[in-house]
Design a protein that fits this description.
By secondary structure, the chain is mainly beta. Among the domains are: about 130 residues, Thrombin, subunit H (Beta Barrel), CATH 2.40.10.220; about 70 residues, no CATH class. Strands 2-3-4-7-6-5 form a six-stranded antiparallel beta barrel.
């Protein structure tokens, strides 16, 4: 059967009468609610990728906070116990969840499969697995560790790639840099700051050494003496000067240094890396239950 990338196009929308009689002996740990929605089931292989050859189609029978019952139109039940189930919402958008198959009941209407939602740490689409991650060995941001599997899920319309961020990286080796304020001439971070005095009375601003006269502070412009900080004047940060090359300027440069190769350069010379993650519409059992109450 040929399938498009959109699961909604793979399932024929039909209306069924959900059974009112629950098969005897089936355990009920949570209240269940009758629900008839188109559904697809996708077996999950050991490496976390989908088994595209055994995608099932059908409809939901009932739902609880712990699991669901499904009617699947397949000649044989899924061979793997872990499945990704997609349920069509009222907006015709499929929402997905990882489930564990609990039982299979044969009937004249097809196979009824009971599934339970897995624990968050066993979900195929855990949040940390959908995002780029920091590789401490290379000091770089790497694609999701299971990107090959996620690409296969994209082919079924379950996940889709999204741009999550843009970061600055080393233009030589693509690793992440550290940043500091430094000398725009030599790149050194050893900067000094020349202190200024602002005399309130006459608005004169000058270097501290010009105010210092025989152990006292005197304004070189208006000749006022015995100046008191806070009352007569304030200190201001003056020009920066490099302690290595004696460069001076009012503004330091934003300097980057690569964590891997050590290249040091102005931050403006770094390259930009686009980070790609993956998005999946997650199935919330409570939303399904609220829709039938």
């Amino acid at each position: 059967m040929n399938r498009s990338a959109d699961p909604a196009k793979n399932v024929e929308t039909r209306v069924y009468a959900a059974p009112e009689v629950i098969p005897p002996g089936e355990r009920r740990r949570h209240p269940r609610y009758l629900l008839t929605r188109p559904v697809i089931t996708i077996p999950v292989l050991a490496d976390g990728s989908p088994d595209e050859e055994r995608v099932g189609e059908g409809y939901t029978i009932d739902v609880s906070v712990g699991g669901m019952s499904l009617r699947i139109d397949q000649s044989e039940p899924p061979r793997l116990s872990t499945l990704v189930v997609g349920v069509e919402s009222e907006s015709s958008q499929y929402h997905f969840s990882t489930v564990r198959m609990r039982n299979v009941i044969e009937s004249s209407e097809g196979k009824r499969i009971g599934v339970e939602f897995v624990e968050p740490e066993r979900c195929v689409f855990r949040a940390e697995q959908l995002q780029p991650w920091f590789d401490a060995r290379t000091f770089s941001l790497a694609p999701p560790a299971n990107e090959e599997a996620l690409t296969r899920w994209c082919g079924l319309g379950v996940t889709r790639p999204v741009v999550t961020d843009y970061v600055q990286v080393c233009s030589a080796c693509r690793a992440l840099p550290t940043f500091r304020h430094g000398c725009r001439k030599c790149g050194s971070a050893r900067l000094g700051n020349i202190q200024l005095i602002h005399h309130f009375a006459c608005a004169y601003v000058g270097f501290v050494e010009k105010f210092e006269q025989h152990g006292d502070l005197m304004c070189p412009k208006c000749r006022a003496k015995h100046l008191v900080v806070g009352a007569d004047f304030e200190y201001l940060a003056g020009p920066y000067h490099c302690l290595d090359c004696n460069w001076r300027d009012s503004t330091p440069e934003h300097i980057a240094q690569c964590l891997r190769c050590g290249m040091r350069c102005p931050a403006s010379q770094l390259s930009e890396q686009q980070l790609i993650g993956y998005h999946v519409h997650r199935l919330d059992p409570l939303v399904l239950i609220d829709s039938v109450r």
